[in-house]
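Journal club prep — side note

Before the paper discussion, L.F. wants everyone to see what a predicted structure for a comparable chain looks like in token form. Sequence:
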Amino acid sequence: MPDDDVSRPSEAQDLPPEVGAASAATDPGEATGAATAARPRRFRRWRRSRPFWGGLFTLLGGLEIATIPLTAYKIMLVTPSVVIAALVGAVIAILGLLMWMTPSQNKLYGLLAILLGVASFVTSNVGGFLLGGLLSIIGGALGFAWVVVDRTEPAAEAAPTDAPDVSIEGDHGPAADGTGPEPSRA
């Protein structure tokens, strides 16, 4: 029985070089390779256009605050209601998502995340055993402090306008070359 892998040439070798190159360029495996190479660039561009780290810390802090009261460990230090603790954590997590979805409102969402992070120390096991509250406060501060950075190239600097208008004797503007109306000789 002959070994098919060794005795059979590949399809690209059977075709003329220009056809083989064209089919190699349209190979679905290579197309997905190029698409996966563009994904990190697209994600980086998306991440830099919004308060990503502020939203992530706020989301993680909110999830931690919301899930701690729902676990088997029933350690409610201040508030006897699990609903209030879970609600505060859920609202903080939603604020983290909103920082990603509508980055133009980052100041409002950051401020609310900070306030609810501080309130979670009272409502939810000392802010989810300190971790969730601190993550929420740090995420809110990062979201509040985020500003849009314009990464476009600066335009070529125009000629300075501070220079005094100096005219050469005999030069009377556009008419000096004889194309315009004659200057007045009053």
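L.F.'s comment for the group: DSSP finds nine helices and no strands in the chain. Keep this in mind when we get to the figures.
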